Amino acid sequence: MYAGPLVISFYHNAKRYEHNLDDETGRFAQEIADMEFFLSLLDELYYKIRDIPHFDSITKGSLTQYRVLYSIWLCIANTLNSTEIASEITKLNFYFDYRAVSNKSYKDIRHIEDEMRKSIYRASVTKSYNYEETRRSTYFELATYIEQRFITDKDKKKNFLDVSKTIYEYHHGGVPRG
Fold this sequence. Notes:
By secondary structure, the chain is mainly alpha-helical. The protein has seven helices and no strands.
């Protein structure tokens, strides 16, 4: 059986955490590693079938939808260190207009996550680091991106942002400023 090097790398990373589930940190790391592995499988599948004429646009679109949802989940989980919040937000996908989902939106979400990681690293190196503020602002940046990019109905837009803020407030206590 063949898999690309990235898939193999994520597979080994997921296996590495398999026996380290004794504490919350181990379980979190395992869930992140598993999702990164699943996403790498979807990415490889997407790039293998995108140019094959036997796969229709519905199949390719469905694959892109899952890639976008998994990348949203990963971005939120990594930003807030919470798979629970990530799951709650991705359950709101019934607000989404999937006609707006594209490979570009997938890349945009991955870019937001990369920028979040860089800003956290830069802030920690310069010691002008406000971890909670960086996490909060990145979360709301992603929620706003989702609202603008994937939700077309005005009532659903407002409701999605309100629910996103409520979820953040519930898990972090206090009033969100987003």
